[in-house]
Amino acid sequence: MTLMLLDSASLWYRAYYGMPDTLLSPSGMPVNAIRGYLDMTARLIGMYSPNRIVACIEGDWRPSWRVELFPGYKANRLEDEGDEEEEPETLTPQIPILLDLLDAFGIPMLGVDDYEADDVMATFAVREKGPIRIVTGDRDLFQLVDDKRDVKVVYLAKGVSQHDLVDTKWVSEKYGIPGDRYALFAMFRGDPSDGLPGVRGIGEKGAALIANNFASVDEALAGAHAKHDALSASLAKKIIDGTDYLKIALTLVNCARDVAIPTMDITKPSKPVDLSEIYKMKDEYGLGASVDRLISALGW
Fold first, then answer.
1. For 22-29, what is the mean pLDDT?
2. What is the tens place of the pLDDT at every residue in 193-222?
3. What DSSP designation does 78 have?
4. For residue range 39-88, what is the model confidence (pLDDT) as tens digits?
5. Phi, psi at 132, each rounded to 5°
6. Do residues 237 and 208 both lie within one domain?
7. What share of the chain has pLDDT > 90, as a percent?
8. Any bridge partners for residue 78, and if so which?
9. Residue 22, class by beta-carbon neighbours within 10 Å (0-12 exposed, 13-18 middle, 19+ buried)?
10. ∠ CA(29), CA(274), CA(42), 5° rounding?
11. What number of other Cβ atoms are within 10 A of residue 10's Cβ?
12. What is the pLDDT of residues 228-268, one digit of tens each?
């Protein structure tokens, strides 16, 4: 009864950079991201046998409510002009084709206006029954692991073949912190990939020390003011000096878990009566065995 949540943008970027750009459609269009996404999805379905699946997409990769709190949120990813994320020009035209193909397969997809895919996945993760496997290359989602509800992250940093299955023990061993405090750790440490500086002067070691001794930002601030034994005078001062940032970091770092998700059927798709649309796209874009692998993984 496993639910598989696909962080689609993470997957197609990984596919784009991991598959050769010599994979072309008959018209000469690159299809490496499409084929890589299909191949990874097929392999993951084979590994985890989900009976529920959702391909989660960005409603907005820079939600207005996060940018209002912190204008620098993901600003490092903006183009020199305009407000669009810089995206490889040969990737951009592949995405609508991929989404059309997933739709033809009947794979449930969801993006919600003014929310990131992370927020959608987080909401599914807290409202649906486990087991839940969140497929991503983004460590932000480590905050969602929950051993009691069997929520784990299929972390693709090393690729599908050598991926890590992240639970609280994995987080604890990797970062030296309680496994359920990754978000707290990240608030203090920061995340350059999202343009988040963290608390000035506090790096990974300091953030880990804080996460080991306090369960929340409020506890850490109270500890700093009370000159807690675990904190050096210097670290306590840095925490106090970071008070204003920490107030907004709670919202910036934590995934929203209350996104208004519409009523939808997230059951793994059963075989349609007619596969002609899928085969037409397969031939038109030269997707070959990648389409066949997904058909096979779905048990069609």
1. 96
2. 899 999 999 999 999 999 999 999 999 999
3. B
4. 999 999 999 999 999 999 999 999 999 999 999 999 888 754 455 666 78
5. -130, 130
6. yes
7. 94
8. 85
9. exposed
10. 55
11. 18
12. 999 999 999 999 999 999 999 999 999 999 999 999 999 99
Considering the domain architecture, whether residues 154 and 102 belong to the same structural domain is answered as yes
Question: Could you read off the pLDDT of 136-167 as tens digits, one per residue?
Answer: 999 999 999 999 999 999 999 999 999 999 99
Asked if residue 89 lies in contact with residue 111, where contact means CB atoms within 8 angstroms, the answer is no
Residue 298 placed within a domain: no
Cα–Cα–Cα angle for 122, 172, 224, rounded to 5 degrees = 90
Q: What is the pTM of this model?
A: 0.94
Domain holding 69, by residue range, is 3-168+260-281
Contact at 8 Å (CB) between 224 and 240?
A: yes
Question: Strands (DSSP E) along the chain, which ranges?
Answer: 3-7, 52-56, 109-110, 132-136, 151-155, 164-166
135-156 burial: b if 16+ Cβ within 10 Å, else e? bbbbbbbbbbbbeeeebbbbbb
Termini Cα distance of the chain: 19
Domain identity same for 113 and 186: no
Residue 217 lies in a domain: yes
**What span, in angstroms and rounded, lies between the C-alpha atoms of 156 and 137?**
5
Statement to judge: residues 205 and 87 lie in one domain? no
d(CA 136, CA 139): 8
The tokens describing 262, both together, are 């519409």
Q: Which amino acid is at 69?
A: L
Listed in sequence order, the residues at least 6 apart from 271 whose beta carbon sits closer than 8 Å to its beta carbon are 298, 299, 300
